[in-house]
Inverse folding.
């Protein structure tokens, strides 16, 4: 178990390390690069190996429409999607409206 901070090495004696994050301390959405250097019992260091990991936002946003339940014939009304939301750090960037019937 390790908390990774950009540019700060994490040393372990085990070949596997858990990258522990939470919703309060996530790794930001995007591509991140990790590096490994191993050291043998004589103190010799390997050349670095790197891997890229992409953190994706896979949580669906929630659509919420508010509008009057009834309006007079020929009167305009507003469909309001402003109460729609996404979990941080996500944000709503597009509203797609369709009249179904």
């Amino acid at each position: 178990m390790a908390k990774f901070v950009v540019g700060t090495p994490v040393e372990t004696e085990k070949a596997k390390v858990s990258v522990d994050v939470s919703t309060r301390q996530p790794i930001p959405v995007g591509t991140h690069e990790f590096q490994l250097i191993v050291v043998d019992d004589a103190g010799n260091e390997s050349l670095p190996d790197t891997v890229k990991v992409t953190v994706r936002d896979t949580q669906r946003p929630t659509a919420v429409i508010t509008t009057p339940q009834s309006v007079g014939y020929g009167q305009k009304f507003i469909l309001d999607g402003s109460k729609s939301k996404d979990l941080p750090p996500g944000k709503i960037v597009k509203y797609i409206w369709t009249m179904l019937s």
In short: Strands lie at 30-36, 49-55.
